[in-house]
Each structure stands twice: as C-alpha cells, then as structure tokens.
Design a protein that fits this description.
- It comes from Streptomyces virginiae.
- This is DUF6236 family protein.
- By secondary structure, the chain is of the alpha/beta class.
- It has two domains: 53 residues; 41 residues, no CATH class.
- Helices cover 37% and strands 11% of the residues.
- It contains four helices and five strands; from the N terminus they run βαβαβααββ.
- The strands form two sheets. A three-stranded parallel sheet has the order 1-2-3, with helices on one face.
- It is elongated.
- The termini are far apart.
Length: 110
Amino acid sequence: MPLQTGLDSSYVRLRDESWAKAAALNGRNVARVVPPGFPVQDREVVGELNQDSGFLVDPDPRPAAEAVASAFFTAVQNNADALRARFAVRDAGSPRAGSRPRALPRPAGT
C-alpha cells in the first residue's frame, strides 16, 4: 500500500514550493508537526494548494511526546555520563583547544 501522507519535518513552513506541488500532484497529504497556537505563515502557493483540500495536516505533537516521555527520560538518566561527555556545553566565549567543557547539572535524585 503506498504512503498516503508525507512528512516535512524540517520546518513548520514548507520551504520548497516545487516539492509541495509534486506532493500535491501525487495525491498525498503533507503532515508537519505544529504545536497548537504556533503561528504559521505559509507561502501563497502552499496556501492555494491547501485551500479546501486538506493538503496540509497539522497533527498535535503532544500525544506522541507524552507517549515517549517516560522512556526518553529513563534513557537520558541511564546514559547521563555518556551524554555529558559527548554534548557538554563549553564556557561562553570562543572555544579554545584544551578548554574544559562545563558540566551540565545532574537531574534531582541522581
């Protein structure tokens, strides 16, 4: 069964009009993750494609975020040291060779 909905996950506003036109010609909907109340300013051609067609689908991200939140937090807690080592924030200013990364605060209870 062919995919009926495409996902443009890079931006809330569709940046590539040609891609949007091709998706519309293929009879697909395009989903973009837009938090409720987030202001979206579509380009004119995208608005015309969406007018009365339901071409764009804006699912609420909260149910998906809530579904994975517990597993995500557990994974972060279980891998905190490795994550700090890999993604530590350096002190403000230009990074210098040999400068020490600033440790991120540990979550309460760890």
